[in-house]
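B., you asked whether I could sanity-check this one before it goes into the benchmark set. Here's the sequence:
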Amino acid sequence: MKIAFLPIDNRPVCYNLAKDITELDGDIKLFIPPREFLGDLMRIADIENLFLWLEGLPEADTLILSLDTITYGGLIPSRRCPESFEVLKKRLERLKPVLKGKKVLAFSSIMRISNNNYNEEEKEYWKDWGKKIFEYSFSGGKNKSDIPDEIIKDYLNTRKRNFEINKLYLEWQKEGLFDTLIFSKDDCAECGFNVEEAKELERLGGRTKTGADEIPLSLLSRAIEKEIAIYPEFTEAEYKNCISNYEDVSIEKSVLGQIELGGFKLAKSKEEADIILVVNNFIEKQGELVMGWETKPYSRTFTPPDKPYCIADVRFANGADNAFVKQVLEKTDFKNFYGYAGWNTSANTLGSLLAGVKVKWGAKEYDEFAFKKLQLIRFLDDWAYQANIRKQIESPCDIKALMKPYEAELFQIFDCKFSEPIKYTYPWNRKFEIEVGL
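And here's what the prediction gave me:
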């Protein structure tokens, strides 16, 4: 199978993870642009070279397309981009011939509204007005507070432009240019301008999904047509109606949405399932390791299912639940194990996890070492670094010595060795993400 894949940006979870997942099956040929063509935290993508890459693609079964990348230069530039709707629309005229005659699975983001005063991924004024703009949005534009008029005007104009671009994509969908088109709800709350935009896009025939970074991987999963029945099993079943941080739906609905988008069948019982999706969900309120928001850690006894299973660790956002992972590593039957994830939001974890499950299940040329590599990266990143080491450092630094005990434990569990030391780097020069170089 041949798949062309245009990521959101050059982060490991957007770029490397797609490659790591598809390497589980040697029958899959992944076409992905050179990493230097993609944008990062401060630099937009090389749009001209990405167009040339798209135009020169060899024949592929499917094109997975992050529209924000080719339109604005990336997900983060979509919030900062100064270009007008007319300029962007003209740019996109070059894209239509590329899409014709191809099976295209695409997504575009609905501009997020983060509830903080961090401007690292937003326009400059977010450092002073971010929380108040969020409150203004949450109130439906009724609570303007003391936000300067020029900032409100700029913010609303940017939103309107992005919304009009998304409506343009809806027109393309009606022309048959997309087999699947998803509008992602990134960092959502229950109310806000982004929520209203999502409702309007749905009214116009669009399809929305809570999440963002994982959606290209969910579309990758969808592109691989395998009949797999999944049964979700929640560690805190009585709390599955609680809403995750940065999302606008319950964790149960988030799980069901990712199962559907990934092209899986929902099993009615464990007996009917091919794979059990173990969801380590939270009690009442999801924890948040970055923000220091606490929640009750896992306190039950983990018993691995007696059939194939995978694990979504979503008790905390932005990292693993230490108490849960300890039991997973002690008790997991790796013969039936189909993967672990615990990174960032619940949707991020679920979408990326299920993509790996889809590729591994019934792989024509299964690569066991590639699977071990994928799991080592997830445990070293989501558990060792995000849930433990990150709290011990003030800024990006050399963490090799701190990671050694975790490496030793994981190498023993997965029964593998590497000829060279693992490298840990900070691709965006911040603590938020690391790159685990195996």
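One thing to flag: The chain has two domains: 2-221, 226-392. Otherwise nothing jumped out at me.
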